């Protein structure tokens, strides 16, 4: 659902600071993964043909639906669940292997490598979503001195929904499960290919069997056709599934290879970035009216809304995938009421006033990162209509009570909270995070009018924005909570109920308040007063003492980054990644402990992967008005390693930027280069040189034209353009 950290870790009653936690957590080890099953989906990019995989010790579950979102009402909350499933149990010598593990194929692809090992041998399942079928390549290796039997029990989990035709009639096909019930009876659910035999165990089990001599390896396939019936079995048996599997993996390699490249000397972080980027395409698919849209999850939330889909496209634009981004934008931007309501009046996010802000952010970022002025021109009428609609709504709340302004004066009227926000016990209320985004949308309208020269609109739009901003800031100030030494922004003015979701968005990305604003500092302090042992903020969503993992990056780390508190931001990145499964997937909400069984929502949820992608980008490249910050969020261990750190051809608001730098501790030097765009209107740029504590830059080579920052934490340029070669002296 909708959700877009100085770090205090409580252990044994002792608090650990964000900086200390950063030093402790500098490797991705999945130490706080939630309990199995661990889920990922496999498919081609933007495909309706998804197969959900649930990995756990000893078995693998495959689940799917034959339905699509093409026939569902656009943006209705009608999740496309997965009613069909089979569970795979590998066996060696008719016994389950002793150990099992799972990871992504090639570390980043949306494909599963599921390994089972035993003293007698090993079974490896590689699962890929192909063009016509989900494909399981079965590789069996006999490491013993004797021949052994390898088999893969494949059992339908829904009784009549899936049966072995040979169990009913020994003369029928032994190598498949047919639907039986719930669809055409002769639909092929799964088909085994390449086995020596298929044992008939019971009515709902398929059991392909291989006899593998000592020291040898055999392969076979389990195929889930997306569209296949009993009459198609000869063609299915003869298909080149190896070719289809390789083509699918190559399509993913090609797509991810088009994204901006980063140099980070921690493969766990790099793998996380590109795995998460791939999953943004896993969670997109065709929907009604010819659109492509992202969904918030792969099953329980497999229903699109235009707000979350817009944020996905922001991340794609940030990594240079502009054509892919625009595919996802279109549905988002087109959804608007005739009265100008841009909060999806016909969708399940109606009355979530933050949606207009998400859409405006996405539209402006696309323009700034791609330079597509015609795109901004085409969207501007929607922005203007949205601001006019919100002004009409706010006018309804500009009423005095007993001659005084109530806390909700000038805010949007009651709307749907979501994200753990409630007005007391009511889901419908006047929520500050939603109003923060709504006011931000008005500022974007003003910025667009200025860029496009809409002089006739400027006075009106400026008045809408300034009035709305003034009312919001007053509501935030008067409605702030003073508690435990903090004055912080609540979800609802004047009330402690509700989560902390979105409060810090007032700083970033909305930038309605400055980094040192009292309420920003107080809200950070309040959030960090309740942190999990794994370094994530508590009480950010629905669960009491639970964690909405994405908020650690989307709200808290982003705020620290803008405040130039890189150590705290880096600590939160590692905390987030270590709460992933080994498949780089996250559930929506969860309990604190490693192996937590308390989880909510989808086990493969959208918000954390999109937060990871955006956070790593901003750590590497961050705009601040007319200034640019490079490497502001780097973990200190990255430069300390001596390996290059940087990014190549990254889109920014000023054009494309490339930089790389490398620390030589023995020579006390940092060398590298920065390539700025020409004639970009860039006022200033700072390269943050995040060295081990106690090390600082003391001088820069004159030809670099760089000025050393007073505290030695990096170098700065005024109005830079072109290539700058660096040789920095470290002390």
Layout of SSEs?
Elements: E1 9-11, E2 14-16, H1 18-24, E3 38-42, E4 51-56, E5 59-64, E6 84-92, E7 99-104, E8 112-118, E9 121-129, E10 133-142, E11 148-156, E12 161-163, H2 165-168, E13 176-180, E14 188-193, E15 197-199, E16 205-212, E17 217-225, H3 233-238, H4 241-257, E18 261-263, H5 267-282, E19 284-286, E20 292-294, H6 306-318, H7 322-334, H8 354-370, H9 373-395, E21 415-416, E22 428-429, H10 432-452, H11 455-478, E23 481-483, E24 486-488, H12 518-528, H13 550-562, H14 566-578, E25 589-590, E26 599-600, H15 607-620, E27 621-624, E28 627-630, H16 636-640, E29 645-652, E30 655-664, E31 669-676, E32 684-688, E33 697-700, E34 707-708, E35 714-718, E36 722-730
Parallel strand pairs: 28-32
Antiparallel strand pairs: 1-2, 3-4, 4-5, 5-6, 6-11, 7-8, 8-9, 9-10, 10-17, 11-16, 12-13, 13-14, 14-17, 15-16, 18-29, 19-20, 21-22, 23-24, 25-26, 27-28, 29-30, 30-31, 31-36, 32-35, 33-36, 34-35
